[in-house]
């Protein structure tokens, strides 16, 4: 099956298959983030639908040769989904980023990377803009975040930092000061994966420089209907507006 044929209608056996915009979005995210999990596709791309709809679509994308399963024994409930070579070529057409694909997902960073993708998909549901993946930031920022969210109409860029382990206070404060030297990022948004980390980071933000602004939210709160984003100066109203 040639790449050009995938842009319209073709056959998988005797079944007619039409590539949908949602399929392209799934392939692009899978390409830019290195992998997706079944649960992420169900939760973020088929919200409000029967989970079986997501499974059926994933099966079609696999049969079409666009997605493949990678087994991570003992680490995940389900296999990871990754783009095939044909899936990569199709995803690249919709992505402005060149993201080299690792041969295997690193087990040491699997949990952290999964959370980063959860955050990407959640923020993309809240805001209008483009997620710039970490692998596309290496040469642009002295302090490399887990991603940058850039708003479409204003061009404003927020740095996104997922905190899944406790850093020492002095180390964390030094990171805050490093962000002071970065141009073009008016806000650094920290996502703490649990309450203990949230409270530790909140205490450190008292010592944050005045610029850029720093926001902090607990992961569970971010995934809720009404995220509460804290800052050294009180709550930030940044999750109720599509563009900032």
Structural commentary:
This protein is α+β, with helices and mostly antiparallel strands and 244 residues long. The chain folds into 2 domains: 1-100, Winged helix-like DNA-binding domain superfamily/Winged helix DNA-binding domain (Arc Repressor Mutant, subunit A, Orthogonal Bundle), CATH 1.10.10; 106-244. Helix content is 36%, strand content 22%. The protein contains 8 helices and 12 strands. The protein has helices spanning 21-33, 38-45, 51-63, 85-94, 110-126, 169-179, 195-205, 219-222, and strands spanning 9-12, 15-18, 36-37, 67-70, 80-83, 129-133, 147-151, 157-163, 187-192, 213-218, 229-231, 234-236. A 5-stranded mixed β-sheet has the order 6-7-8-9-10. Strand 7 and strand 8 (157-163) form a beta hairpin. Helix 1 packs across helix 4 (85-94) and helix 6 packs across helix 7. The chain is elongated, with a radius of gyration of 19 Å. The protein starts with 8 loop residues before the first strand and ends in an 8-residue tail after the last strand.
Search tags:
single chain, 244 residues, alpha+beta, Arc Repressor Mutant, subunit A, 5-stranded mixed beta sheet, 3-stranded antiparallel beta sheet, 8 helices, 36% helix, elongated
């Amino acid at each position: 099956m040639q790449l050009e044929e995938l842009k319209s209608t073709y056959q998988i056996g005797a079944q007619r298959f039409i590539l949908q915009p949602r399929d392209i979005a799934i392939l692009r995210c899978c390409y830019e983030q290195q992998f997706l999990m079944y649960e992420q596709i169900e939760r973020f791309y088929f919200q409000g639908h029967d989970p079986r709809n997501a499974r059926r679509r994933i099966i079609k994308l696999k049969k079409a040769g666009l997605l493949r399963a990678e087994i991570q024994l003992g680490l995940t409930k389900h296999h990871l989904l990754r783009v095939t070579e044909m899936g990569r070529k199709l995803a690249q057409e919709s992505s402005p980023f060149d993201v080299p694909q690792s041969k295997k997902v690193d087990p040491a960073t699997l949990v952290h990377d999964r959370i980063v993708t959860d955050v990407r998909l959640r923020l993309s549901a809240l805001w209008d803009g483009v997620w710039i993946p970490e692998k596309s930031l290496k040469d642009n920022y002295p302090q490399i975040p887990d991603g940058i969210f850039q708003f479409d109409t204003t061009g404003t860029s927020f740095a996104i930092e997922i905190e899944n382990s406790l850093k020492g206070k002095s180390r964390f404060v030094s990171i805050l000061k490093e962000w002071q030297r970065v141009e073009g990022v008016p806000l650094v948004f920290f996502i703490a994966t649990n309450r203990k980390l949230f409270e530790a980071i909140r205490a450190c933000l008292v010592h944050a420089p005045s610029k850029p602004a720093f926001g902090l939210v607990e992961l569970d709160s971010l995934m809720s209907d009404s995220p509460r984003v804290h800052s050294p100066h009180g709550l930030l109203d940044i999750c109720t507006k599509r563009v900032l």
